[in-house]
């Protein structure tokens, strides 16, 4: 879940820009995707009528879909993200979202249940104590934000592929689609091959402590082979599906595969 | 050649020497477009998380917001990579790089830089690159290779983690990518300025002679 960072030392100047982007209504954001070069460089250079930005936007969307296919082709399900020693962990690890920490979902762990839907044999919901009993592993990997910054963190949880096996998921399905407790309904699709990657994790702890609110309590999906915004926090449900259901940022133009 | 009564024979027998073959001209202008798209969208991406205490003016960025900048960057990258690869292969295969850019000697460079700064560098024969040109053109090809490799490494830091290791680590690759961009911008300024000072070189890059 990328977008705005607050706690990275020395880079807060960008908040100015981010704020101005945030205040832009979504429609104009989209319109700007294509027409945003207000110096008119494109019109000048290509002679195309970029004012008719819909054609440029369609072109960019097609290329982004093509890039999804290229990335899926490049993706090696056995290639592991580099791991690091504890000494390399970034402190403090940045809180990052498109809202302030005060506005982050405040989930009551006692009431929370992970809902499981779609192409799975066992659709029972899981309470937190039930999930905590599953075997857990720790990884220290680099989180890379779509914005360009990165930070190394320590995440502990259950490998997603073990859980998918446990619930009898149809792993031939195309996606695992996550929904989150964020009030705008954050969601994000994860391609099945990445969901089955050995390092893709249902995360319950950060730095060996129960996942704090800032990092996605009660559960985050840690995917070290994807950009940060495809690492959903505050997850409330997962659905195994063959349908592409879109995602919060994917629908706004971030490349959907966004694999590393 | 200023005679008004040139015969067909004369025209045929003294064709103007081709300075820039067609493939160089086509690839040059494709690259020029691709570079502008990459730089302006790159500035947009930079602004999302600046490495230094400044941002690029919004008017000089492409895409409107980070998502748009990324779409442009990852679309134009194909133009850069395919055109760049074709350029490298053709340049090496035809011997153009060897013939035009080599040798580069320190004394030659020193001499021509001094001449250039005092406006004494001759441009009588555009088919032979002086040492300032050789250094700049060879250098920018190298920078082009490094910026593409560092960019690929940042795009695929897991699948191509060996490429990231080559630059140190992910954050270092980001800095290198940035400095290569800065070098390309500096080259662009000098390159355009010199082309305007010697307009026939610009003409050669358009019509070939």
CATH fold node name of chain A: Sulfite Oxidase, Chain A, domain 2
Helical fraction of chain A equals 10-25%
Largest interface (CB within 8 Å) is between: A-B, 54 and 41 residues
The residue fraction in helices of chain B comes out at over 70%
Shape field of chain B? globular
Query: How many β strands of chain A by DSSP?
Result: 10
How much is the average pLDDT of chain B?
91
Note poorly predicted spans of chain B: 9-13
Termini of chain A, distance in Å?
Answer: 15 Å
Query: SSE string of chain B, helix = H, strand = E?
Result: HHHHHHHHH
The largest pleated sheet of chain B is described as: none
Descriptive keywords:
heterodimer; A: 260 residues; alpha+beta; Sulfite Oxidase, Chain A, domain 2; five-stranded mixed β-sheet; five-stranded antiparallel β-sheet; 10 strands; 24% helix; disordered N terminus; B: 209 residues; mainly alpha; 2 domains; 9 helices; globular
Describe the structure.
Chain A is an alpha+beta fold and 260 residues long. Chain A has one domain: Sulfite Oxidase, Chain A, domain 2 (Alpha-Beta Complex), CATH 3.90.420.10. Chain A is 24% helix and 21% strand. In chain A, a hairpin with a 2-residue loop joins strand 7 (201-206) and strand 8. In chain A, helix 2 (26-35) packs across helix 4 (53-74). Chain B is mainly alpha-helical and 209 residues long. Chain B has two domains: 19-94, no CATH class; 101-209, no CATH class. Chain B is built from nine helices and no strands. Chain B has helices at residues 8-13, 22-48, 66-93, 96-101, 106-117, 131-155, 161-166, 170-197, 199-207. At the A-B interface, helix 1, helix 2, helix 3 and helix 4 of A face helix 2, helix 3 and helix 8 of B.
